[in-house]
Amino acid sequence: MNDHDITLTEEELALHAKLAALKQEHLDLDASIEALSRMPVPDQLMIARLKRKKLTLRDEIVKVEALILPPIIA
Predict the structure, then answer these.
(1) What pLDDT does 1 receive?
(2) 3-state secondary structure string, the chain?
């Protein structure tokens, strides 16, 4: 076995899958916000809700990333 081979546990694989899903949802919200913004009469309330949801997702992404890559103690 090579020292560079990385074996992930089921929990780590699940975290990576969750992270990918959260990032995709974040991108989808970004696209939705962009599309709503380009409408002749943008729905500002809906845009604000989507932006709040996007911020919540960003917080979740940061939390999952922290679980995947714990802080390095110097």
Answers:
(1) 45
(2) CCCCCCCCCHHHHHHHHHHHHHHHHHHHHHHHHHHHHCCCCCCHHHHHHHHHHHHHHHHHHHHHHHHHCCCCCC
